Amino acid sequence: MRIDKYLWCVRYYKTRNIATTACKKGHIKINDAVVKPSRDVYPTDVIELRKDQVNYKLIVLDIPPNRVGAKLVDLYRVDKTPKSAFEAQEMLKLAKDYYRKKGVGRPTKKDRRDLDNLNLENEQ
Prior knowledge:
Elements: H1 3-9, H2 16-24, E1 28-30, E2 33-34, E3 46-51, E4 54-60, E5 77-79, H3 84-98, H4 109-123
Antiparallel strand pairs: 1-2, 1-3, 3-4, 4-5
Helix pairs in contact: 1-2
Family: Belongs to the HSP15 family.
Keywords: DNA-binding, RNA-binding
Protein name: RNA-binding S4 domain-containing protein
C-alpha cells in the first residue's frame, strides 16, 4: 500500500491529498529516508511524520484493507511518539489562550511585560 494511502487509512490525515502534499514537502520518512507519496509500506516499517509541530513515530503492524474506524487504528500501527513531543504543542495552546481575542487591537505595554514574564517562568 502507498504511504499516502496508509496514513489516510490510519487517520493521520483527513484526505489523501493532504497526505500526498505532506510527502512531497518532505514531512514523512520511512526508515530514516524521506519518501515520495508512491512509496510502498510494509509491516515493521518505522514511519516518522511531522504534523502540527509534533514529530510522530509509528511502527507499521499490518496493512489495512481500507480506511478504518478510530477504534481499530491500533490494530495496524504502534505509536512510539515520546510524550515530550506533545509538551511544546501544549505550551502554544496556553499562549494562545492567555492572549486576547482576535481583532481586539495591538498589545499594550502591560500585555508585553506579562508575556515576557510568562516566558521567563517557563524557561526556569
